[in-house]
Amino acid sequence: MMPSAAEKDYLVIVQCHLVKERCSGFHCEKAFHDRSGGFTNYSAQQPLRLLTMTCGGCCGRSLQRKLINLLHLSHKREQMDRSRIMVHLSTCITKASHHGPVCPHLDYLKELISRLNLDIARDTWISKTAEKRRQQGLYPSDPP
Ligand code: SF4
Ligand code: SF4
Predict the structure, then answer these.
(1) Low-confidence ranges of the chain (pLDDT < 70)
(2) Domain spans of the chain?
(3) Residue 121 phi/psi, 5° resolution?
(4) pLDDT the model gives residue 104
(5) Which of 5, 65, 76, 87 would be 41's cystine partner, CB 3.0–4.6 Å?
(6) Which residues of 92-104 are buried (b: 16+ CB within 10 A; e: fewer)?
(7) Which residue's alpha carbon is nearest to atom 2 within ligand 2?
(8) For a pocket test of ligand 1, which of 124, 127, 128 has the largest count of ligand atoms closer than 8 A to its C-beta?
(9) C-alpha of residue 102 to centroid of ligand 1, in Å
């Protein structure tokens, strides 16, 4: 069963470490602000906190340590339950674009997040241009 967006109030965007070497993350934040792309399930009235982090670089293993740190501190300081958190994998991880193909470690990243019993959502910003190019077959196809 898909986790309910209405039950979440703390979103974590995980971004590709390599892509973030040249990206500020502006479009991820804009999609969150506008509740577009991967954030359409959240209402504009829903109070949401947002944290961004990168996977830490291939193969993404340090993501586990970062998320454990978040779980530890959020529980210690705010008694936050992990069920309130949703982890969004940024579109530069989940879809092919001019930044590159889909992350070759996507399944591994999902496994790391799932092992911590955190819910996962795909995508952040969806570029119209990139969507069109994907449909035209100009980028490698997305995984199922
Ligand atoms: S999805 Fe776009 S804005 Fe977000 S980190 Fe990736 S390249 Fe940057
Ligand atoms: S593991 Fe994937 S998301 Fe992380 S840096 Fe490598 S390609 Fe990017």
Answers:
(1) 1-2, 141-144
(2) 8-135
(3) -125, 150
(4) 97
(5) 5
(6) bbbbbbebeebbe
(7) 103
(8) 124
(9) 13
CA dist., res. 91 & res. 112, Å (int): 18
DSSP 22: S
Q: What is the CATH number of domain 8-135?
A: 3.40.50
Q: Taking a C-beta distance cutoff of 8 angstroms, is the pair 134, 98 a contact?
A: no
Q: For the chain, give the percent of residues with pLDDT over 70.
A: 96
Q: Minimal CA–CA distance to 11: which of 38, 55, 58?
A: 38
DSSP state at residue 62: H
CA angle 86, 41, 91 (to 5 degrees): 65
Q: What is the pLDDT of residue 142?
A: 61
* Calpha distance 6→46 (Å, rounded): 8
Decide whether any atom of ligand 1 lies within 6 Å of the 91 Cβ.
yes
Nearest-angstrom CA–CA distance, 27 and 118: 24
- From CA 119, how far away is CA 122, in angstroms rounded? 10
Can you tell me which residue has the tokens 């996962």? 120
